[in-house]
């Protein structure tokens, strides 16, 4: 009894209906292709041009008419053909055709006004001639080739014949999947086609493969695709039969003949010789079929062979033959080894990544312990929010800095070290701690940014390190914000319920150039104004550019006006989906008192 529950009738019926629908669509497409192929042949014959040119003309007609290409093709009528006139066929042509024991015809070229060969006329056909659509020699003689057999246009045979006529090089196509088209009906067949130039014409022969030939051809193709080989050793006569794939599998020249059974160990790698001895013992002594696998020395290196072998016994039970089916499984074994190595590397990388994540998180928690909460500074209330990325692998280098410095000003900065993981966090630490020390010099924001750029460039020799930042000072007496932009998203000013990006002097990202100067922008603020600094994780979304993200932030800010910077940040992130952002998110909202 099967362990699987039986299929319900409705399930099998639905599956059958879907398959039937797919086949119906395919057959409809095949019919459309037949219509196009026959129309191309008709148009080429009517206009005395080559099939490719006729296909282009058909496409132009569809474009100019505005109709579907198939509908235009249906309107191409069969070209008018005069009844074939009696042909003056040389005796040698008839003799040559009758000597061929397959369908054969002799073609003469048809040229256009420029002298190019565009088609052929069937001068004569032998008594065996019969197309896949059933047209015989009497109906073929005297007609143009594409008119008598439109399928030669779509299959490319006409182009092959023209190439043979012009170059003199014969062509042989076998097996060839040929589809004859007559009155938009399909007549598919598998053919063996040959063409050669004889005097001022072409001798063309074709033969339709029968079922047995198709099976043999299919089996040979299956052997090549599956890399299968078959062999038989006659133990009494010492006669050996091998399929062509066996020669390739064992790296043996066909001129040397098959390998004797007793010579098999000579090509097996030494480590696998016990496997071969056990195989022979099972076949010859225990008279049992055996399936095994071993490696052989091939001219292209070591190959892995999977061998299924069996003894053929006589009436007394003695082995008289040994047959085997061999498959080259080298690629499978290499793939398995590669997968094993990749799996081990993945585990190792995962362990390293987990350790890096642990160190990164600890480092970030140490550097930026404040992820939310109000900071009270002279004439300023600052709300800060830092949210790491949704995935640990996306932990980045976002940072902020707010500090009251001895000269009375307030350092108000935000930045982003490029990259993710421990490297970005280390760069972030360098930028943030470096700026904290430089700020006590009392230098301007532009000078601080220049120094910070020098620190990043010269503090990481041999490694390209970059980052962005907004660095500025808030003067509580004048209520001004003097700031510089080092390639960072522009700050936002919210005043009287309206939000807009600040206009400022753009600057180069940090670490890009050895010597960089940064200009400052002075922004005058009023009580109640809110200055919003943020990193790109707030405004960047997959599939949208940065400008769209900033516009969304401005729109969200119109609805997030309030006295509490913390509540404003909550509102902004909720409207922008910042709580679930893939990248780090850092927002600083400073309200002027």
Automatic annotation (TrEMBL):
Species: Actinomadura luzonensis
SMART domains: PP2C_SIG
Keywords: Hydrolase
Pfam entry (one): PAS_3
Protein name listed in UniProt: SpoIIE family protein phosphatase
InterPro entries: ANTAR, Bact_Sigma-Reg, PAS, PAS-assoc_C, PAS-like_dom_sf, PAS_fold_3, PPM-type-like_dom_sf, PPM-type_phosphatase-like_dom
Residue span, PAC domain: 290-341
Domain ANTAR: 16-77
Gene3D superfamilies the record matches: PAS domain, PPM-type phosphatase domain
Coiled coil spans: none
Highest taxon listed in the record's lineage: Bacteria
Record carries keyword Cell membrane: no
């Amino acid at each position: 009894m099967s362990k699987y529950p039986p299929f319900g009738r409705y399930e099998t019926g639905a599956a059958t209906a879907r398959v039937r629908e797919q086949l119906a669509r395919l057959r409809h497409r095949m019919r459309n292709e037949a219509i196009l192929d026959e129309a191309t042949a008709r148009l080429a014959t009517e206009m005395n041009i080559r099939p490719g040119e006729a296909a282009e003309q058909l496409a132009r007609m569809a474009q100019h008419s505005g109709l579907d290409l198939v509908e235009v093709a249906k309107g191409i009528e069969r070209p008018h053909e005069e009844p074939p006139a009696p042909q003056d066929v040389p005796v040698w042509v008839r003799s040559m055709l009758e000597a061929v024991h397959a369908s054969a015809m002799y073609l003469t070229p048809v040229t256009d006004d420029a002298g190019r060969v565009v088609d052929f006329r069937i001068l004569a056909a032998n008594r065996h001639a019969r197309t896949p659509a059933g047209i015989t020699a009497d109906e073929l003689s005297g007609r143009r080739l594409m008119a008598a057999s439109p399928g030669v246009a779509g299959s490319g045979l006409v182009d092959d014949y023209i190439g043979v006529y012009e170059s003199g090089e014969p062509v042989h196509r076998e097996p060839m999947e040929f589809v004859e088209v007559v009155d938009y009906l399909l007549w598919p067949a598998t053919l063996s086609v040959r063409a050669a130039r004889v005097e001022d014409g072409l001798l063309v022969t074709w033969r339709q493969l029968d079922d047995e030939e198709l099976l043999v051809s299919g089996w040979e193709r299956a052997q090549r695709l599956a890399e299968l080989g078959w062999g038989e050793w006659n133990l009494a006569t010492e006669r050996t039969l091998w399929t062509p794939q066996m020669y390739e599998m064992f790296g043996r020249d066909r001129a040397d003949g098959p390998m004797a059974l007793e010579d098999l160990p000579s090509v097996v790698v030494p480590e696998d010789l016990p496997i071969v001895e056990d195989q022979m013992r099972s076949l010859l002594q225990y008279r049992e079929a055996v399936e095994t696998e071993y490696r052989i020395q091939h001219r292209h290196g070591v190959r892995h062979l999977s061998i299924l072998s069996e003894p053929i016994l006589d009436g007394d039970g003695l082995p008289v033959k040994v047959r085997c089916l061999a498959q080259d499984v080298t690629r499978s074994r290499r793939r398995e080894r590669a997968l094993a190595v990749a799996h081990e590397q993945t585990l190792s990388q995962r362990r390293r990544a987990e350790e890096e994540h642990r160190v990164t998180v600890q480092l970030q928690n140490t550097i930026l312990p404040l992820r939310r909460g109000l900071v009270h500074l002279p004439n300023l209330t600052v709300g800060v929010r830092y949210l790491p990325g949704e995935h640990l692998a996306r932990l980045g280098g976002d940072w902020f800095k707010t500090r009251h410095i001895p000269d009375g000003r307030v350092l108000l900065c935000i930045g982003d070290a490029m990259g993710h993981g421990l490297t970005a966090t280390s760069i972030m630490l360098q930028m943030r701690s470096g700026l904290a020390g430089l700020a006590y010099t009392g230098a301007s924001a532009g000078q601080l940014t220049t120094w910070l750029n020098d620190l990043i460039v010269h503090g990481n020799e041999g490694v390209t390190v970059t980052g962005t930042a907004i660095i500025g000072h808030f003067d509580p007496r004048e209520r001004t914000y003097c700031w510089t932009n080092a390639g960072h998203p522009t700050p936002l000013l919210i005043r009287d319920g309206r939000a807009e990006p600040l206009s400022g002097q753009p600057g180069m990202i940090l670490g890009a150039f050895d010597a960089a100067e940064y200009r400052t922008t002075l922004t005058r603020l009023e009580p109640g104004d809110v200055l919003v600094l943020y990193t790109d994780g707030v405004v960047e979304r997959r599939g949208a550019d940065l400008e769209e993200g900033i516009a969304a932030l401005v729109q969200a800010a119109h609805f997030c006006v309030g006295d509490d910077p913390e509540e404003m940040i909550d509102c902004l992130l909720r409207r922008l989906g910042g709580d679930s952002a893939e990248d780090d998110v850092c927002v600083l909202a400073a309200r002027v008192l």
